Amino acid sequence: MDFPKPVDSMVYPRHGNIATFMRMPHISDPKQLDVAYVGVPFDTSAGYRVGARLGPRAVRAASSAVRLHHPVHDVTVHERIRIADYGDVLTTPFEIEKTYDSITREFDAIYAAGCRTIAVGGDHGITYPILRAVAKHTGPVGVVQIDAHTDTHDTQFGARLTHATPFRRAHEDGLLVPSKVVQLGIRGSLFYPDDLAWSREHYHLVTADEIHGRGVEPIVEEMRATVGGAPVYLTFDIDGLDPMCAPGTGVPEIGGLTTWQAMQIIRGFAGLQLVGADLVEVSPPCDTNDVTSIVAAQLLFEIAAVFAVNHGRRQAVLKPAAQPRRA
Amino acid sequence: MDFPKPVDSMVYPRHGNIATFMRMPHISDPKQLDVAYVGVPFDTSAGYRVGARLGPRAVRAASSAVRLHHPVHDVTVHERIRIADYGDVLTTPFEIEKTYDSITREFDAIYAAGCRTIAVGGDHGITYPILRAVAKHTGPVGVVQIDAHTDTHDTQFGARLTHATPFRRAHEDGLLVPSKVVQLGIRGSLFYPDDLAWSREHYHLVTADEIHGRGVEPIVEEMRATVGGAPVYLTFDIDGLDPMCAPGTGVPEIGGLTTWQAMQIIRGFAGLQLVGADLVEVSPPCDTNDVTSIVAAQLLFEIAAVFAVNHGRRQAVLKPAAQPRRA
Amino acid sequence: MDFPKPVDSMVYPRHGNIATFMRMPHISDPKQLDVAYVGVPFDTSAGYRVGARLGPRAVRAASSAVRLHHPVHDVTVHERIRIADYGDVLTTPFEIEKTYDSITREFDAIYAAGCRTIAVGGDHGITYPILRAVAKHTGPVGVVQIDAHTDTHDTQFGARLTHATPFRRAHEDGLLVPSKVVQLGIRGSLFYPDDLAWSREHYHLVTADEIHGRGVEPIVEEMRATVGGAPVYLTFDIDGLDPMCAPGTGVPEIGGLTTWQAMQIIRGFAGLQLVGADLVEVSPPCDTNDVTSIVAAQLLFEIAAVFAVNHGRRQAVLKPAAQPRRA
Amino acid sequence: MDFPKPVDSMVYPRHGNIATFMRMPHISDPKQLDVAYVGVPFDTSAGYRVGARLGPRAVRAASSAVRLHHPVHDVTVHERIRIADYGDVLTTPFEIEKTYDSITREFDAIYAAGCRTIAVGGDHGITYPILRAVAKHTGPVGVVQIDAHTDTHDTQFGARLTHATPFRRAHEDGLLVPSKVVQLGIRGSLFYPDDLAWSREHYHLVTADEIHGRGVEPIVEEMRATVGGAPVYLTFDIDGLDPMCAPGTGVPEIGGLTTWQAMQIIRGFAGLQLVGADLVEVSPPCDTNDVTSIVAAQLLFEIAAVFAVNHGRRQAVLKPAAQPRRA
Amino acid sequence: MDFPKPVDSMVYPRHGNIATFMRMPHISDPKQLDVAYVGVPFDTSAGYRVGARLGPRAVRAASSAVRLHHPVHDVTVHERIRIADYGDVLTTPFEIEKTYDSITREFDAIYAAGCRTIAVGGDHGITYPILRAVAKHTGPVGVVQIDAHTDTHDTQFGARLTHATPFRRAHEDGLLVPSKVVQLGIRGSLFYPDDLAWSREHYHLVTADEIHGRGVEPIVEEMRATVGGAPVYLTFDIDGLDPMCAPGTGVPEIGGLTTWQAMQIIRGFAGLQLVGADLVEVSPPCDTNDVTSIVAAQLLFEIAAVFAVNHGRRQAVLKPAAQPRRA
Amino acid sequence: MDFPKPVDSMVYPRHGNIATFMRMPHISDPKQLDVAYVGVPFDTSAGYRVGARLGPRAVRAASSAVRLHHPVHDVTVHERIRIADYGDVLTTPFEIEKTYDSITREFDAIYAAGCRTIAVGGDHGITYPILRAVAKHTGPVGVVQIDAHTDTHDTQFGARLTHATPFRRAHEDGLLVPSKVVQLGIRGSLFYPDDLAWSREHYHLVTADEIHGRGVEPIVEEMRATVGGAPVYLTFDIDGLDPMCAPGTGVPEIGGLTTWQAMQIIRGFAGLQLVGADLVEVSPPCDTNDVTSIVAAQLLFEIAAVFAVNHGRRQAVLKPAAQPRRA
What we know:
Six copies of one chain form a homohexamer.
Chain A: E1 35-40, H1 55-62, E2 69-70, E3 75-76, H2 77-80, E4 83-88, H3 96-112, E5 116-121, H4 127-138, E6 141-146, H5 166-172, E7 176-186, H6 197-202, E8 204-207, H7 208-214, H8 216-227, E9 231-237, H9 259-267, E10 273-280, H10 291-310
Parallel strand pairs in A: 1-4, 1-5, 5-10, 6-7, 6-9, 7-8, 9-10
Antiparallel strand pairs in A: 2-3
Helix pairs in contact in A: 1-10, 3-4, 4-5, 9-10
């Protein structure tokens, strides 16, 4: 079993070479991989400031600065798991439904090959078609969502497939285990008084205020207890971070998480049954001198390190085609 | 008959006040106007770098620096025509066809009220639904298109309504008089060898090379001769300009027009039957310190001045509902 | 009694339409309003890096992303109070005294109509002429000032009307109740050893160090206790925030407040007799990709929410012309 | 007689050392110099987008890249004339009249010492107090003004001392020889129909259109013929250039000069009686990555080279105190 | 013989996928190619503003917008020649000589395989080690250099291998045919009076002034006549362009070429014996919103099109190891 | 004994005048000074994103906003110590070893004159040649290093003199007292599993995680206890700060220190035997609107204030030439 090797940053300087995620090789065959970085350059389901379609490219470039041993987990990612840059899935900027179907189809094929994914968006709408693929192979999943917004609206501008609605759609499709959904970092002004009501009713919602007030450690413990041993998917909207950390996103909200808090949350996945992850809403045109892409690349490394450290431990088995129940 | 008055820049400094086009009042009733600036904040039909949805807002802000007497035409725009900021038409970022229908509907109502429009995009796809509205009231129109690209593809990514296809769609719908369509400034690499063939067959295509080689004056004369006394629509894709003049656009092409050349072309509309105009593809996220928005605002002023100087001369009569013929 | 309604962001996308504060209508008649957002595009009293004259315009644009229900106060701002965008007051960039007089005159008229104000600067010098107007209708007020600097110098470059002196001037004019003035977030290098002495003698000065050291909650309690039931004016210099949160200002100082700390302070005004507020020193030319304007817009929403939640409770009565005592 | 020597860019790299104009030493004693670069960091007389107060600093930094031999005039500037960085004159950001008096006083002292100046603004208002000083020593001067705007308004916002009025004020004070005033590059929208009338009546006004249409060479000849052997002052508003060349200025106007055209004009001063010069309206906050400052630095070198090449030829004698006649 | 195919931009949108030059596949085996794009991410031989080490990466990203049929040459590049992205050669940022040796070694291997190169720098110093490799296989070559500076200094800061000296070193090594070296676009201030003397003595030097004065067509004819049927190498320093076209470079000089002029020069290589080319000194950190990278990508396409159109015509034969004569 | 005086910011506005560190005079004679700000504009030993060569210039400009009395130490820096801007040391961008020797030579001369230094880089490699000079006069020193990275690699790309290796080299040369070396803020991904092992073995390494977890106060106490009364050198790599505070650096790492934490650490040097300091890796091309330079300038002030407050207390005596022991 071959472990793909990154470009060696001790030989080829980090400003050089064709930019792939973490300088890993470009491998489109998921059978060769345990985990694939997958670009999803699609932002047409974003309702306001777009640009996240350029996210995968910018994060690839920024990720060349990441080294590959994690100092806390003490794991060298590419030596523990077979991980590479899968490339980007097929998208078309003009059609949301068609693109979502394309996303589901391609992620389905990846999971069918026994490979898990770290998707890089793109807007948050893409998590819904990814979950459609993942849940086919795992059954309904727990979800940890780091985000300023719950993204559980029913519609936006009358449309059902948008970046404000993925978790409502996933819920309806039975892709989630509601009791194992944790939303962390929620904050900001609301469209309607009851915007949070649906989430509070179905999920475990933790506001950013609560994280700042109580500290991040007990929140991580709660998250771990809620999710338990179930298969769990991590979805990280970069606007979960405060604008000071991640200005390059479409809808920043003040009072958000610091990168350090976010790192504690991600590190808290050690030992959980992590079956997939994504990082979305990095919008390079909204960014300033790539700082958000740099932050995103380092968070991707944190996520990859969790996959690596969990590898070899008892893992959720990916089924050829588990059938999610319709809500 | 009341002439709307701008905020007086000799009293209220130009950095102040709510930003409208040229500091004119916000008037949504087209019956009060001869010409309306109309924002069309829609860029979902753009296939690559988006951001033109933010164009109207940025151009409004930049336009506060424009004064209102034209030094060459010797006309004070707002004293010759009733002109104001209509506001933005209804768009929804997720649906192209629905938005195009909305655009046509709203422009139709404006023209039905006897008012002409200077639209500010948004991506170039919006010209098609605008032409659907205009041609209802004028019959098929001549078109002068300043652009790097012909935008006459049949489809892009399999879609028929995109910013690469508006003039093919308008052609099919019989909205244009092909012999009176002039495309100026065309250049850049092509997808396929025959990308220009269709345009060369149906329209009068003038490359940027030809304009640089022959000088702009004879080209303007040709344009005027081609268009003649027919109703004509001016559509200005900001990427007709060279990137040095207009970096803030999705698909810049080197070797383009200077602003001075563009100004000569616009000024060449004096005496023509100008029935409408647009300026599209200004993408603030692709811009640097608003320079493209500033350029766009001044070009809008050049366009408005032509409407003003032509006013009172023999003008094309807007019909309640002329019926374009289907190609 | 009509409540002005914002543009509905569920119908018109947030990147569209003429930019007003919070997408509220432009209403220049204060009699129709309980609270008015008022732009004050003036920065000639700034002694170093200017640009705050462009603040109101940039914050208007950024504010279109704010929704209108507050998640903590559980109040929909525009349904509880009549609030709108008043537009900008008359300023002239060349003359400080004349402009200050103009500001006082216009705010006086607004308060005389029974309307309170949330002013958006502009440099911090504008707070002095605003306080001249406010105190006419409330008598001397308490002031909570979030700021890096005390702004209590006697003169700057020999001038008495500058952004370094407003609270010295207001003090001399008897516009303030010194025992109810709280300065929060003070820090940074000083011109002279005794720069803070005057403030410490007359006011309740709390350094940023103290806020970081003790936590923000006890500080908020102290602030509430100090101000008590007196009429109080909130003045927020954006440089009260750390440069990481608000780089777009003339004189940033490290070691400042986070937005989360600032939000706790503003929320602490619930139940107080808030008679007016301002947010100043947002300088778009010093900003990077609008992040400071975005932060400012969200802080304005926090301030508006306090006005809304306090509304209907026992409120300070605005008098036609209370006479401040000369110090 | 000592010739000040620049930092040697073949020894000390250009990114190093304290930034002075052209890396020349800082010498505040005008008696040691033939020509002094003088910073005038003042922009309070600018009516719209400010920032030119930061111009001298930014141009100093950019000028370190300039080498010191001119390839066309074949002259090494600092070996032909004693030239250095005088530093900045005293200004106060709050008061125009007081600052103008300060400027006049300091330039007067420089000219009284037999030294000429290349001033770096600052807004264009500063040319008026400089001319008050220059004309004391030369009598009324000819002026060549490269500019988009005539700057001959009577007042702006009711004020007489602004960046829109310097040449009206200088005219009234008899500082100019009207028949020897040439305005080059004028263009752009006007406040009022007769904005250009005054200039056309009193001066030789050449529009940018005319320069593009006729070519720059005959214009230079006209300029030389108009100015003849009289003492002449060169005032270069960076907005004389097209925004593509100089985006970093408060009020850019499209259709402007290229740097190459501007260089031809400046080089046309060889052999004229150049008694002083300035370069104004470089506004770093409006700039993008210093490109306008770089352009400005190189234009300053072109100007200095003219002083150098003219040196030793028959020169206008600076009088201790020639008295301008009041108009 | 397989022709590598680009990612199809009609299927995969241009913002997607791993960024390679022109979306061509990454092929490191030169035997499979007629022409290779080769990145040289090295800028340690730049003496002032660095950043060109990031050039290849930025140009790769920008190049995804280029389509692949040339409208004037009427050639589809990748269907006429086997061309691909070779990747980057090995460089080390700390050592110039070692890196130059590495560059020579790697280019030598490419040419030995019968493949020609379009190198993307990196600073201009890299042309010297490339020429060492090229001339081994062609004998001494003619050179057309588009540049603001001659780059023929003997040393800079005492060093012999810098971006100011490549053509002096190549000359000494006998890699060039001096009578067939053309330097186009030279301008700007000089370190010493005789900076141009050496070039004028040995080469055909054409200043930018001359190109602007005489027009570009006769210059192209001269260039073609000078080079004749000899093997010729094209080296394009992006600072040959005016800063308005290419701000993103270390040492911009005003009065430079427009992109249109540069395109005419490159197109003038049709029919010449073009054996290699490079584009250097694109410095993304000096750029504004990628505009220089976009320009560079389109110029690379112009260069590639010349290789394509010349292919099949009588071509210079690459020898296994022609021996350049030492000067 | 003369105390150099800064430009008075109450007379000359802060945007004016030639930019020196803290507006102090330029004095190259170390005998006149107790402490010298010394620019070291060199970044060739940086392995990835360069630009720190422009650091001293940018920090000089930003520092003009700093006032000179410290509010916590209650000391007016320039009245307690003789401090000024020494200018920049001689560097050559092409040669690391030669430049390091030059740095050592020049700092040696400064220390030999009894003057201490606050160096402004430049990349972190420069600390090694500075320590060679310092230790000659103090003997081996304790070091407090605020940094994301330990910089104790043996080589980078095979080179021994790089910004990744200074403390390994200094260690080998016996310039340090290992038991008195404290590394604060260490974090981020590692090249190899044992990257931190060497530091943990020889030094007192404190991760950023630990600082966030325990709070900064006990860390400061530990640092003071570790260093004790020994001569100590403070080296501050700006990437010790979180990217939200200091985006303008070559290799930012998330989870870093806030400026407030850094200020507590620096203030903790009061009473220690501080013999020198530096601030490195500020890279203006990686910065956004100068925010990192502003932060750096204020940290420099914090450092200078410690020198000032310690002055007069018992101080480490600088020896003419103490001999460090070879490791």
